[in-house]
Amino acid sequence: MKLIMAVIQDKDSNRLSDALVEHDFQATKLASTGGFLKAGNTTFMIGVEDEHVNEVLTIINENCKAREQLVAPISPMGGNADSYVPYPVEVQVGGATVFVLPVDQFEKF
Ligand code: 2BA
Prior knowledge:
The chain is of the alpha+beta class. 22% of the residues lie in helices and 37% in strands. The two termini are 18 Å apart.
């Protein structure tokens, strides 16, 4: 068994939930925050048998879009102003950042 952890954008969260339910996969959604943008995102925990991992990855891939996002600059209070960029910078935020972890034991009580 594997635990798939997928960090995705909030905008794709409902669509991905619906697609997973439609394909009979169970998932837990966690509210998370990106370390770089410090903006909310959603982390899915999906426990699946090994033979279903690729199917779940395909569902994630099909339902999560990469988008450009503007990062507002933070002024360097008393710091080094040399690297300060005074205008918003566009970064591409992925579709999904996915980790596939081995599960030693799985119980439901
Ligand atoms: P954030 O950390 O808020 O990052 C948002 C986007 O900003 C990233 O998109 C990337 O394009 C850019 N970015 C991140 N760190 C950067 C840096 N040091 N310099 C320049 N640009 C940077 P993604 O790579 O698609 O990541 C989307 C979200 O997935 C991340 O949100 C974070 O919550 C999670 N994530 C990505 N890589 C991860 C990792 N190795 N471990 C844990 N979480 C990760």
